Amino acid sequence: MIEVNRQGEVWVFAEQEAAALSEVPLELLGKGRELADKLGVKLAAVLLGDGVKDLASKLIAYGADKVYLAEEPRLGYYQANGYAKVLCDLIHAHKPQICLFGATPIGRDLAPRIASAMKCGLTADCTDLQIGDHELPAGQGKHENLLLQIRPAFGGNIIATIINYDRWPQMATVREGVMPMLQADATRKGDVIDCDVNLNGTELPLKIIESRRTQKKVNLKSARVIVSGGAGVGSRENFKLCWDLANCLGAAVAGSRAAVDLGYIDRDHQVGQTGTTVRPALYIAVGISGAVQHRAGMAESAKIVAINTDKDAPIFGVAHYGIVGDLNVVIPKLIKAIRAGGRIDSNLPTAESGRKTKLGAGSNA
Amino acid sequence: MGYSCVVLVKQVPDTKRITGQAMNDDGTVNRAALPTIFNPEDLYALEMALDIRDRFGGTVAVVTMGPPAACEVLRESFYRGADRCVLITDRKAAASDTLATSYILSCAVRKIGRSDVVLCGRQAIDGDTAQVGPQLAEKLGIPQITCVQELHVLNGQTIRVTRNIGNGFELVECRLPVLLTVLDGAPMPRPSAGRRMMKYKKARARVEVEMDLAARMPDADQATRSAQVQTQMAVLAEKNLQIEQWTLADIGADLTWCGREGSPTKVHRIQSIVLTGKGHKSVQATDEAVAGMVEELITDHTIG
Ligand SMILES: Cc1cc2nc3c(=O)[nH]c(=O)nc-3n(C[C@H](O)[C@H](O)[C@H](O)COP(=O)(O)OP(=O)(O)OC[C@H]3O[C@@H](n4cnc5c(N)ncnc54)[C@H](O)[C@@H]3O)c2cc1C
Ligand SMILES: Cc1cc2nc3c(=O)[nH]c(=O)nc-3n(C[C@H](O)[C@H](O)[C@H](O)COP(=O)(O)OP(=O)(O)OC[C@H]3O[C@@H](n4cnc5c(N)ncnc54)[C@H](O)[C@@H]3O)c2cc1C
Question: Coil, strand or helix: which one is B39?
Fold first, then answer.
């Protein structure tokens, strides 16, 4: 661990594979920028790999003030031990106050290894991060400007805010797709700092014999919000309601097997036992009965909203919010409420009327 | 000779079955009102260890840290084929975060002796962190392979497995000893064996024997009772029905790294997700009700 260091930087682990950045580090830089500005410190990205120097400018464009660059052929392919060794050395040398990792397969493999070696805290799979104070019990004072690490736990049934006030750095993994990226700004300036890499052979214990990546067209797994339609949606055309709802939530669209078999949506989008298993922050099931094979793929979602005309549909058994009603009526109301930010605003047009206007304009032209 | 496997298992509340009745008035989860189960992915870890023993020879020891009630998952491990079961129970271990938990477990694994393969579930369904496996590997000074879906071969000093990393697969080889975290896509856990159940349903840890005697002989004095405990433990040991029980002192754990004091992460605040007694909240199909639901989803950071 390192001592509490109020001047310490905010660090983001710049996860890359095959010398390409995924979206997660860019999302983390967006949030990291906000945290660093609030604390009045620098934001740095830490980039490990082989032949990845060119990625530094992108990290700067997305908000980093600095990039710590550790290049070495043996870092070309990710391994927990080697990456953890390099990062621990860097943390000891520069004493950042916050270190953020994506809650990706790599981040969740790497961050605990580092936290254990550093003997510092680590909060898993955060969905929000804020800066705030923590009051100690019975007038023992308070800790100011801590990282408040907000995460669902208990199968999504509770939201815990976790802090670490003495054994720093404050480390967290952050769920993919929950932090908004900044607009890239190619004119931003930043420093690239070359770092020494000290590996002895023992830090590369794994031999990766084969590696396959499945390139799915849709990435349901990392979607934070999913709108999923079933046979009840009625037609491929009417599925547009699901796409509209998804659009205003920044959500991905999925379907039940019946919806796929009926041709409402492509097979890549199927959720369930023979499709993808998802656990988003929010799963909105519309016109889905909730057969056990479907529930197997979505019951672990942190929050489930079910919309169905049949009050006895099994989907309500796993839902947190149940709306008994016709999806053709409920979805437009939902879109309206989301556009209004949860407030009731009768002046806003419903999506229905909004679309009609558009159509009208179209046919006039 | 064979391979020595140690499996770490956790008893967890069945978080999939949380209803309004399981929430306290202050919004915290009332664990006592929830049924407890064997953490689902730990069953897959146990299966992989039993499979190693069956195919390549060796032994399977199972360790859990928890309250006396956690003996239930150890008995279940016996039913499925474990050779040896250990309960780590100590009030000083309460409130451990993942760092402290993995430290305590590392002391226990060391005490068991030589281990070639240490196995964990990928993730527990209550804490939901998936951190204990990699942290335990670091504490033991051995490599980790997370998200293991299939074990191919154990060949002298090396192991070869397939990892399922969500967006793809990796075929990985590593020298022993190693720690694996196992996913629920791995081979299906075998059911409990009837004959083993008949035998091991009588397996007990010392603390269970003590609690049982306290209930049955409320008036007996201390000396009589401890004499009884000794006798019963001797009988259990003779029949190989003993669940070994260790305290933090028994495993040589340094208390500064255990429990609340040893845990750098602290809970600042807990909010429960609103659940009604029926399990879900009914929302009317009106503008007002739908807007109210959206507002709740924004307030608890689900959307927005
Ligand atoms: C081996 C096997 C594997 C399977 N794998 C999968 C899988 O991976 N994924 C999967 O999804 N299924 C899977 N299934 C199929 C599963 O059993 C169900 O048949 C399927 O999930 C049903 O889809 P559905 O809910 O869309 O359709 P239905 O069961 O037909 O339900 C439609 C629902 O829409 C409601 N509804 C109708 N009109 C409206 C309206 N206007 N407004 C609101 N609600 C309305 C109805 O009340 C009904 O509840 C599998 C089955 C088997 C045997
Ligand atoms: C609401 C809430 C939020 C929390 N958030 C955090 C957090 O962000 N960071 C943090 O460090 N701690 C956190 N904790 C504490 C954490 O839950 C406990 O430390 C717990 O003992 C282990 O974590 P886990 O349940 O997430 O296990 P995981 O790391 O998910 O478990 C993985 C595997 O490790 C093994 N294992 C885990 N626990 C045991 C055990 N007791 N005995 C035997 N084997 C075991 C099992 O094989 C299991 O499958 C939180 C606790 C709560 C209640």
Answer: coil
Q: Which residue in B has a C-alpha nearest to residue A348's C-alpha?
A: B287
With a cut of 90, say whether residue A107 has pLDDT above it. Answer: yes
CA-based nearest distance A20→chain B, Å: 15
Q: Kindly indicate whether the domain formed by A220-360 is annotated with CATH number 3.40.50.1220.
A: yes
The ranges of chain A annotated as CATH 3.40.50.1220 are 220-360
Alpha-carbon span A60 to A219, nearest angstrom: 26
For the Cβ of B262 lying below 6 angstroms from any atom of ligand 2, the answer is no
According to the model, what pLDDT value does residue B303 have? 87
Min Cα–Cα distance to chain A from B50, Å: 24
Written in H, E and C, the secondary structure of chain A is CECCCCCCCEEEECCEECCEECHHHHHHHHHHHHHHHHHCCCEEEEEEECCCHHHHHHHHHCCCCEEEEEECHHHCCCCHHHHHHHHHHHHHHHCCCEEEEECCHHHHHHHHHHHHHHCCCEEEEECEEEEEEEECCCCCCEEEEEEEEEEEECCCCEEEEEECCCCECEEEEECCCCCCCCCCCCCCCCEEEECCCCCCHHHCCEEEEEEEECCCCCCCCCCCEEEEECHHHCCCCCCHHHHHHHHHHCCEEEECHHHHHCCCCCHHHEECCCCECCCCCEEEEECCCCCHHHHCCCCCCCCEEEEECCCCCHHHHCCCEEEECCHHHHHHHHHHHHHCCCCCCCCCCCHHHHHHHHHHHHHHC
How far does residue B10's CA lie from ligand 2's centre (Å)?
9
B142 Cα to chain A: minimum distance (Å):
9
The verdict on a CB contact (< 8 Å) between B301 and A127 is yes
pLDDT band of residue A37 (cuts 50, 70, 90) is very high
What does the pLDDT look like over A67-76, one tens digit per residue? 999 999 999 9
- Residues of chain B below pLDDT 70: 17-29, 272-278
A125 alpha carbon, closest ligand: 2
Q: Which of B12, B24, B99 to substitute to test the interface with A, most A CBs within 10 Å? A: B99
Spatial separation of the C-alpha atoms in residues B94 and B101, rounded to whole Å: 9
Domain topology for A10-194: Rossmann fold (3.40.50)
Q: Would you give the DSSP letter of residue A297?
A: T
Decide if B289 is inside a domain: no
pTM beyond 0.90: no
Q: For residue A104, list its beta bridge partners.
A: none
Tally the domains of chain B. Answer: 1
Q: Which of A149, A151, A162, A279 to mutate to test the pocket of ligand 2 (most atoms within 8 A of CB)?
A: A162
Residue B28: what pLDDT? Answer: 58
Q: From atom 22 of ligand 2, which residue's Cα is the shortest distance away?
A: B98
